[in-house]
Amino acid sequence: MSTRTAAVQPTTAVQPTTTDDVPTVTDVPARAPWSAVLPAGSHLTITDLHGNQAVDFLVYDAHDHAVRYSAPDTLQAQGGIFLTTGSVLMSGEHTPLMTVVADTCGRHDTIGGACSKESNTLRYGHHTWSQHACVDNFLAEGARYGLGKRDLVSNVNWYMNVPVEEDGTLGIVDGISAPGLEVTLRAETDVLVLVSNCPQINNPCNGFDPTPVRMTVTPAPTADGAGR
């Protein structure tokens, strides 16, 4: 098992709202954060470049950050705990924020949460305190938009495999993803997306070896089918 604790690298770019007719592609390094403001109708594709890499994810209304992803509303609306094609990410006001329109992995987690220094030390020992965590990424990236710790809620974990056992306990086990698998979401309103390319090395969610992922932002189609 890897025990390396290399410092987080900055993302190669943070993509703002775009009106270009071509997709914007950003490779997010292992352990790094990423964010984007996406206009309604645009698409975000998250590609697991090397396989078995968890991608922690939060989404907010771009104009009112108090309107944000709600795990309870999302699970209640779809009647299940796993996300796949057709799943709608709902806000606490029970309004749609983003919809999964394509998914080649098949199942994504909504209940495993984000790793933090506190949870790492509780689960894996105090020697892990110095290790970077998803909460660190969310706080650093969210601060650019005026978000703080009170604005963090239960998040989506794309590609993370968290089965529910017969006795109701949860497991964090080897992923079901593979290199090149993708999940694509459509923005149902203007949204702010925060991503932590998970740095966890103490459980199998990243195969004990965090790797880069790719973010592709595609503009909303116009009436003639082209990007707007």
TrEMBL record:
Region described as Disordered: spans on this chain: 1-24
Which InterPro entries does the record associate with it? DUF1989, UAAP2
- Ranges where the DUF1989 domain occurs: 28-192
Pfam families membership: DUF1989 (PF09347)
Q: Do you know which PANTHER family this protein is assigned to?
A: RE64534P (PTHR31527:SF0)
Q: What is this protein called?
A: Urea carboxylase-associated family protein
Native species: Actinacidiphila acididurans
Specify the taxonomic lineage.
Bacteria, Bacillati, Actinomycetota, Actinomycetes, Kitasatosporales
